Amino acid sequence: MNMPAISILTIDGPSGTGKGTLMQLLAEQLGWHTLDSGALYRVLGLAATRQGLELDAAEALTLLAAALPLAFNAGRVLLSDEDVSDAIRTEEAGMAASRVAAHPCVRSALLDWQRQFARAPGLVADGRDMGTVVFPHAQLKIFLDASPEIRAERRYKQLKEKGLNANLPQLIADIRERDARDRSRPVAPLCPADDAVCVDSTQMSRAEVLDCVLEEVRRVFPHAVARS
């Protein structure tokens, strides 16, 4: 793959670090497009579950991925015209996404689909292999991390605010399990790109993380105009 003709900023990292929020804030500041790659795998996991497919059935999952009736519209995620934006944000959907994403053939089936999101004036893409596999020549790569305990606490608060039941020890265990699976898979394991800027948000507020990354954006994309 040649160097991108447009500006590309990738944000990788484990679940619960705030990648999606950071992506949206940066895209609003810069006026760029977004790619939430995790939504692809979450939708695939949801679709597979609804069809009764085993999440270890790589061949069947690949066929489903190749013809996934997925669309993004005004910030909403549509599966066969059904709004599944909330359905794919459950803990179960996250675990299913991690399982289907472990299959190399599934990742390959979704690769070109993801790269089509790169459009002028620029793209902010978040996921787990955006900077290492999908956009290896992105001009700026961020790896956002935080301790499992902090990520679980953040998720716990989110669930409680929504009036949902949550068990903090179980959330910590689930996050550790997902981290281990994502980091150890044979293809596109979760890890920083060699040229990534690593940001540990464990002791940082959302505003502090945004300011930190914006400094890198100004350094790499000096002509990008941040909106007020």
UniProtKB/TrEMBL annotation:
<dbReference type="GO" id="GO:0015949">
    <property type="term" value="P:nucleobase-containing small molecule interconversion"/>
</dbReference>
<dbReference type="GO" id="GO:0005829">
    <property type="term" value="C:cytosol"/>
</dbReference>
<dbReference type="GO" id="GO:0005524">
    <property type="term" value="F:ATP binding"/>
</dbReference>
<feature type="binding site">
    <location>
        <begin position="13"/>
        <end position="21"/>
    </location>
    <ligand>
        <name>ATP</name>
    </ligand>
</feature>
<dbReference type="GO" id="GO:0036430">
    <property type="term" value="F:CMP kinase activity"/>
</dbReference>
<dbReference type="GO" id="GO:0006220">
    <property type="term" value="P:pyrimidine nucleotide metabolic process"/>
</dbReference>
<keyword id="KW-0547">Nucleotide-binding</keyword>
<dbReference type="InterPro" id="IPR011994">
    <property type="entry name" value="Cytidylate_kinase_dom"/>
</dbReference>
<comment type="similarity">
    <text>Belongs to the cytidylate kinase family. Type 1 subfamily.</text>
</comment>
<keyword id="KW-0067">ATP-binding</keyword>
<feature type="domain" description="Cytidylate kinase">
    <location>
        <begin position="10"/>
        <end position="218"/>
    </location>
</feature>
<dbReference type="InterPro" id="IPR027417">
    <property type="entry name" value="P-loop_NTPase"/>
</dbReference>
<dbReference type="GO" id="GO:0036431">
    <property type="term" value="F:dCMP kinase activity"/>
</dbReference>
<dbReference type="Pfam" id="PF02224">
    <property type="entry name" value="Cytidylate_kin"/>
</dbReference>
<keyword id="KW-0808">Transferase</keyword>
<protein>
    <recommendedName>
        <fullName>Cytidylate kinase</fullName>
        <ecNumber>2.7.4.25</ecNumber>
    </recommendedName>
</protein>
<keyword id="KW-0963">Cytoplasm</keyword>
<dbReference type="InterPro" id="IPR003136">
    <property type="entry name" value="Cytidylate_kin"/>
</dbReference>
<keyword id="KW-0418">Kinase</keyword>
